[in-house]
Amino acid sequence: MSFVKTVASAAILAAAASAADARDQIRVVGSSTVFPFSTTVAEQFGRSTDFQTPVVESTGSGGGLKLFCAGVGTEHPDITNASRRMKAKEFKLCADNGVTEVTEAIIGYDGIVIANAKGGPVLNVTREQLVTALAAQGPLPEMWSDVDPSLPVIKIEVLGPPPSSGTRDAFEELVMHEGCEGAGIACEGITIREDGAYIEAGENDNLIVSKLEANPNAIGVFGFSFLDQNSDVLQGSSVDGVEPTFDNIADGAYPVSRSLYFYIKNAHVGVIPGLQEFADEFMSDAAAGEEGYLVDKGLIPLPEDVFETISGNVKSLSPMTGNEWN
């Protein structure tokens, strides 16, 4: 009997602790690229519903997924944003920590741009030239003109995201790994140089923008939305002869483009007030549709049929299966 009483007491204490720890505000972490879109949805959600405005943190895609996959419970985030797809090893980390049901949503597309301040030199580059300029295994040129005489006679100074960033992952995949063979540099094990030519500028893309304004000869690497929102002070560079424009990214002509994601912790739906409603707002036609308010912020919308499918998956909380990488 005493054992039963002890167990019952422990259950009551656990329930009380759970109630005490419960929160009524959605917590979102992850990508700095998705951050402005997620923040816009959170603000709209807070204004238009009776739920509290979600808290959105910019931690980087990798950092956000690490936090998201750490476990189930109110001490862990409900949603993580990512500017790349969750990796298979991250899916396993989630499962190992009890996060067994996760819904994946693609909100739209984004381009990774090479840009600098207006008034600075106009840079028209190929992916091969970018690899030559930035590969640790390459010739380590000091000036852009050392890469190719057609490029400006200015020092190579690139401000870009750190390894924890999904933008960095996508840049390495879409530029470094795609351009290495044409640049005559071994693709296996290729990395970005660490001798000062490439400067890790943190997860705050707005900080990169301000640094570019201060140094017109410096080049920045970040998502198209930040170029779009700062087009009065920044200019984008053509890559492989294609300008980084809304239409070129939408139709796939611009070579450095990727999908943007968010991930829902299904176990938190029904526990954290408004979580399902917030996810539905994010994938609503009013937000991420072709005429949605996120398009005004620089989001490249999905084709209508793809959008409808993903929006439906979010509404039904269709979980990932683990076969997404096959």
Task: Provide a concise account of the structure shown.
The protein is an alpha/beta fold. The chain contains 13 helices and eleven strands.
Task: Tell me what you see in this structure.
The structure is a single chain. The chain is of the alpha/beta class and 326 residues long. The protein has 2 domains: 27-109 and 258-316, D-Maltodextrin-Binding Protein, domain 2, CATH 3.40.190; 111-251, 3-Layer(aba) Sandwich (D-Maltodextrin-Binding Protein, domain 2). Helices cover 39% and strands 16% of the residues. The protein is built from 13 helices and 11 strands.
Give the helix/strand class. Answer: alpha/beta
CATH superfamily of the largest domain: Periplasmic binding protein-like II
- The CATH topology of the largest domain comes to D-Maltodextrin-Binding Protein, domain 2
Overall strand count: 11
CATH class of the largest domain: Alpha Beta
Shape: globular
Give the tally of structural domains: 2
What low-confidence regions span 5 or more consecutive residues with pLDDT below 50?
A: 1-20
Proportion of strand residues: 15-25%
The main sheet comes to:
9 strands, mixed
Instruction: Tell me which CATH architecture of the largest domain applies here.
Output: 3-Layer(aba) Sandwich
What is the average of the pLDDT values?
Answer: 91
